[in-house]
Amino acid sequence: MMFSTKAEYGVRVMVELAKHAGEEPVPLAEIAAKDRLPLAYLEHLVARLRKAGLVDSRRGSRGGYLLARSPVDITMAEIVEALEGSIAPIECISQGPDGTISCSRESDPGHVCPTKLLWTRVRHAVVHTLQETTLADLVLGPALLAGAALGKTGAAGASAAKKLPALGTARRRTRPLTSGA
After folding, report:
1. Per CATH, the architecture of 5-72 is what?
2. CA pair distance 39, 103, nearest whole angstrom
């Protein structure tokens, strides 16, 4: 399963905003230039993120974008869902409003999809991973990995948390997807 550039670029924007959490708004042009991303496309993505309540905007000469909540409280599932819509490993699998997973090929009462179990498990694993990964995890992750490579597992985590005081301690948080994904 591949996510589109919507998810890739949108997550990159959110990571940049998380790095500046608690500071002044970040101009989107600054993020676009730093990551060499198309500004017009990022404007489209940020509009979706704003509609989902994940980012706020400020107008004016010192305007830009900032996170609507703490990076610890924003999951990758929320971001990906806001940008991509429903998460499904293949076209025929979807989740109904009541949470049940269905296969569009099972429309006939006597037909049972032989691969539904596989695709349901794949979908569950992807959604679970996205729900368990916060924006803070992505920001703190490189510092923690670098520290682990140097044999500084505990100190690296403490050092990274001090450098990013608005993030606090990254904790796992499971949030249900809201659009039936």
Report:
1. Orthogonal Bundle (1.10)
2. 38
